[in-house]
Design a protein that fits this description.
The protein contains 14 helices and twelve strands. Helix 1 (7-14) packs across helix 2 (18-25) and helix 3 (33-46) runs antiparallel to helix 4 (52-59). Strand 6 (182-186), helix 9 and strand 7 form a beta-alpha-beta unit. The protein has a six-stranded parallel sheet, with helices on both faces. Strands 7-6-8-9-10-12 form a six-stranded mixed sheet, sandwiched between helices. By secondary structure, it is α/β, with parallel strands linked by helices. Helix content is 46%, strand content 15%. The N and C termini lie far apart (64 Å).
Length: 353
């Protein structure tokens, strides 16, 4: 196995400091052009990173694309990432992927690292309501596209689902089934979570129902988060006959919590999720969910990013904002409200005692 060449070795070869080599590698404008060309020559001769960094800096034509997603436990992101990697490679690009775990600080650190690698462009599904990483990318001028989550920052293309309408349709379906006390296990306060909560509230308002703050609870877009949120609703002895979850993963967790309390879905409680993950159609889950095509959305996003990279003059002007249509897929976790559902609070208290 070939030994990795270090910055120190390149610096010794070029007769400059390690900091100078680092400045050149990171494309910082603090080095004279003469010194920069000297370092680039020695980066190439020494075989630093297989010449990839030196070549991209020297030609100013990076073939590296950054992809930043919040999670890989959600199969939706895995499917989208696979599509993006395939399309990027077909067009001659390599994808550097980072997973933020929905932490704003981690997101900013990872995006800084990606930018330092002289990427040609960045695709990101941001989890930071303050959009720190997005602002940084836009400030440095790297071609940038937001995918699935929108920060609201001007200057970038956006490809997302119609979260508000999808959520509205899901809750309207529950209302049509006779449910009046509908809990919402919310997502994060980013564009996706906010849109889905607004859709929930809109459906209630359209039906002349008020929003009960006691039936709103966060779930962190994870199965554990959904389980814990539903458990909290039950322990607080809240009365509800249905739950709208901001993601399928949270819906899976909520169903676990209900089962642990002896409650049946949909006989006692109806459940609707969002994302329509592939597992949701399995017979043992059979979850009603809001569906859209994230793979197509990812395809559109990477195509637009590559256009921004390769033909910037042809895509100047107003940014693209595409909103993918959503469809409610009705399965076995929703049913008309029943007498047992109306008495669920009593049953839950009995199970706990």
């Amino acid at each position: 196995m070939r030994r990795k060449v270090t910055l120190s070795e390149v610096a010794a070869s070029a007769g400059v400091s390690v900091q100078t080599v680092s400045n050149v590698v990171n494309n910082k404008p603090v080095v004279s052009e003469e010194t920069r060309q000297l370092v680039l020559t020695h980066l190439s001769e020494c075989g630093y990173r297989g010449n990839a960094v030196a070549r991209s800096l020297k030609t100013n034509k990076s073939r590296l694309i950054g992809l930043v997603v919040p999670s890989m436990t959600n199969s939706m992101y895995a499917e989208v990432a696979e599509t993006i990697v395939h399309e990027a490679e077909r067009c001659g690009y390599t994808v550097m992927m980072a997973v933020t775990m929905r932490d704003a600080k981690t997101e900013l650190e990872l995006v800084n690292t990606i930018v330092d690698h002289n990427v040609a462009g960045i695709l990101m599904s941001s989890s930071d309501p303050e959009a720190q990483a997005s602002k940084m990318v836009l400030n440095v001028g790297v071609p940038y596209v937001e995918l699935l989550n929108r920060t609201g920052e001007a200057g970038c293309d956006v490809f997302e689902a119609d979260n508000r309408r999808g959520a509205r349709d899901a809750v309207a379906h529950l209302i049509e089934l006779g449910h009046r006390h509908i809990a919402h296990i919310c997502g994060l306060p980013n564009s996706t979570g906010t849109g889905r909560r607004e859709g929930y509230e809109q459906a209630l308002s359209d039906a002349g129902l008020s929003v009960d703050p006691e039936l709103l609870i966060g779930g962190r877009y994870t199965r554990q988060g959904g389980r814990e949120a539903c458990e909290a609703l039950l322990l607080a002895e809240q009365t509800f006959s249905a739950v709208f979850c901001a993601s399928d993963l949270m819906a899976y967790g909520a169903m676990e919590a209900l089962a642990n309390h002896g409650l049946k879905v949909p006989e006692d409680i109806s459940i609707v999720g969002f994302d329509d993950m592939s597992m949701s159609s399995l017979p043992g889950i059979n979850l009603s969910s809001v569906s859209f095509d994230p793979v197509k959305t990812g395809q559109r996003a990477i195509d637009q990013l590559i256009r921004r990279i390769e033909k910037p003059a042809s895509v100047t002007g107003a940014e693209v904002h595409e909103i993918a249509a959503c469809t409610l897929v009705k399965r076995g976790t929703t049913a008309p409200v029943s007498a047992s559902a109306r008495q669920v609070d009593k049953k839950a208290r009995h199970v706990r005692s």
